[in-house]
Amino acid sequence: MKKKITWQRLLPMLIPILVLAVWQLLSVLKVIPTNILPAPSAVILDGIKLTQNGELTRNLTISLYRATIGFLIGGSIGFVLGLLNGLSRISNLLTDSSIQMFRNIPHLALIPMVILWFGIGESAKIFLVTIGVMFPIYINTLHGIQSVDPGLIEMGRVYQLNKRQLFSKIIFPGALPSILVGVRYALGVMWTTLIVAETIAADSGIGFMAMNAEDFMDMETIVLCIVIYAILGKLSDVIVKYLEEFLLDWQQTD
Amino acid sequence: MTEVPFIEIQHLTKNFGDQPVLNDLNLTFKAGEFVAIVGQSGGGKSTLLRLLAGLDEPTKGSITESGEQVEGINRQARVMFQDDRLLPWQTVLENIKLGTTDKSDLALKTLSLVGLADFAETFPDKLSGGQKQRVALARALVAQPQLLLLDEPLGALDALTRLNMQELIEHVWQKSPELTMILVTHDVEESVRLADRILVVKDHGIALDLQVGLPRPRQNDQPQFNEIVDQILGEILEHDKFNDD
Predict the structure, then answer these.
(1) Where is the ABC transporter domain (chain B) (predicted)?
(2) Nearest residue in chain A measured CA to CA from B143
(3) Are B63 and B8 a contacting pair, CB within 8 Å?
(4) Domain assignment present for A107
(5) Most C-beta atoms within 10 A of its C-beta, which of A47, B64, B97, B215?
C-alpha cells in the first residue's frame, strides 16, 4: 500500500524529468543549438549566478509583491461585488450589467492607457493585475451564491436562522466551491497579466529580466524566466489545491 | 387533551396567480394530535403545510396558533421535508444543532433516539437515504417544537426503510404527548398506520375529515385497517375515474 502511494506521488514528475533528460542529451549532442535553446544545465548555472549576484532575488521579490498586492486588491473587490450582487437584488440590478460590460474589455488592451495614467511605476502593474483577477472572482462568487440550493435556504428560515447565520452556515459554505474555482482561475490570470505588464512597461521584475536578456541575446536568462513563471504558476495551483482540501474537507471521497 | 384548539384555521384561501389551490378552509387541530393529510398530487396538501409553517402567506383568511396569529415563519413549528435538506458541509451533530443555542447534550440524546449515536461526527454524504431522514427528524426534534410538519418525508425511501421510519415517527410522537404532528403523504396506508385523524384534500377543500380509532400498533392485515384505507381511497378517487382519460 505504502509503495503504491509513493509511486503515485512520483508519477506526475516522470514526464518533466524525461523532458529535461532528453533536452539535456540533445543539447550535449548539439542537436539543439544553444542559440535556439540552451541546455538545462546552462539554465540552472545561470540561475545560480543570478541568485548569487542578487539580481534574480530582487526581480522575483518585486514580481511576487506586484502579484500579491494586485491579487489581494482585485480579489477583494471581486469578492465583495460578487457578495453584494449575489445577496442584493437591487445591487445586482444596479451594477451587474455595467460590470459585465467592463468585463468584456480585454484588460491587457488597457496597457497603453494605464502607462499614460501611471507611467511604468508599481501602480500600473498592480492596477492591471487588480483588473485581471477581479472578474473571475466576481463571476464565480456571484455564480456560487446564486447556485446555493434554495431548499437549504428555506430550511434555514424554518430553523430560525437569522440573516448572519443564513450567510455563514448556508450561503457562504454553499458558494465556496465556486469561489475557489474563481481563485484558481484568477491566479492564472494574475501571472499572465504580470508577465505581459512587466514585459511591456517595467524596469524590474521577472518579465523585465527576460526582456533585458533579449537585448543581450542572453538565451539562458530568457529560458530561466520562463521556467520561473511555470514554477510560480504550479506553486499557485498547489496552494489552491491545499486550500480546497482544507476548506472543502466534506467533499473528500474517503 | 384540552378542548381549546392548538391551531385554528379560518377562511383560509390560497391562490397562485388566478389559480385557486385552497378555498375558504376552516379547520382546528388539538394539541398532541397526529393528523395526516392525503389527496392527489397538486391538490394543495403541501400548500396547507407551507402555510402552517409560515413559508407562504395566505391570500385570505388566517391561521391562529395558541391564540396568536401566525405571521412570517412559525416559530413553534419545525418542518421535515421530502428531501433531507442536510447541510453537506456540516457533520451530523452540527446539522442537528442548527438553529439552536448550543445544546450538545440534547442533540446527542436525540441522535440516540433516532439510532444514530455513532454517526455524530460523520458528514451526511456518508449516510444512506434512511439515515439522512433520521438525522432530519432529529434536527426537527432538538428544538423541541410544539408542531412538527412532515412534508412527505418518507416518499423517497425504499419499502423497508419506510416501515422503520414510520415506527420511529410513531415512537417519537407517543413519547411527546404535547407534540402535534401533521403529516402530508400520498400513501394512504401510511396515513392510516400513523394518524389519529385523516383529512382528504380535494377540489381546493377538505373532502373528508376522518377520526381513526384503531389501536396501535396498526397492521395492514387488520380488516378495519383496510376498510378505512378503502374509504379514503374511494373518496380520493371519486369523480377522478371519469376525469382520468
Answers:
(1) 7-228
(2) A159
(3) yes
(4) yes
(5) B97
Contacts of A250 in chain B (CB under 8 A): 88-90, 123, 125
The answer to whether the CB of B123 falls within 8 A of the CB of A250 is: yes
pLDDT at A187 over 90: yes
Domain that holds residue B130: 7-208+225-237
Contact call for A152 and B85, based on CB within 8 A: yes
Q: CATH code at A197?
A: 1.10.3720.10
Interface test with A, best of B85, B94, B144 (most A CBs within 10 A): B85
- What number is the average pLDDT over the span A193-199? 89
Residues of A in Cβ contact (< 8 Å) with B123: 250
pLDDT of B220 reads 83
pLDDT at B42: 83
Report, as ranges of residue numbers, the positions in chain B whose pLDDT lies below 70. 1-3, 102-103, 239-245
Q: Which residue has the cell 457562504?
A: A172
Which pLDDT band holds residue A2 (cuts at 50, 70, 90)? low
What residue has cell string 456560487? A144
According to the model, what pLDDT value does residue A202 have?
Answer: 80
Residue B216 lies in a domain: no
Count of domains forming chain A: 1
- Judge whether A98 lies within some domain: yes
Q: What is the mean pLDDT of residues A227-236?
A: 91
Residues A22-47 have pLDDT tens digits of 999 999 999 998 888 999 999 999 99
- Contact yes or no for B138/B110 (Cβ under 8 A): yes
Does any domain span residue B244?
no
Q: Is residue A5 part of a domain?
A: no
Q: How far is C-alpha B170 from the chain's CA centre?
A: 12
Residue B148 · residue B116 · CB < 8 Å: no
Q: Closest-CA residue in chain B for A160? A: B99
B51: nearest CA partner in chain A? A158
Residue B49 belongs to some domain of the structure: yes
The answer, for A18 touching chain B at a CB cutoff of 8 Å, is: no
> Which pTM does this prediction carry?
0.85
ipTM: 0.87
User: Given this model, what pLDDT does residue B3 score?
Assistant: 64
In chain A, the N- to C-terminal Cα span, in Å, equals 15
Number of H helices, E strands in chain B: 8, 10
CATH number where B197 lies: 3.40.50.300
Give the C-alpha separation, A208 to A196, whole Å. 10
B28 lies in some domain: yes
Which range marks the domain in which residue A192 is found?
A: 45-248
The whole-number pLDDT of residue A9 equals 81
**Domain assignment of residue A72, yes or no:** yes
A167 contacts in chain B (CB < 8 Å): none
pLDDT score of A77: 98
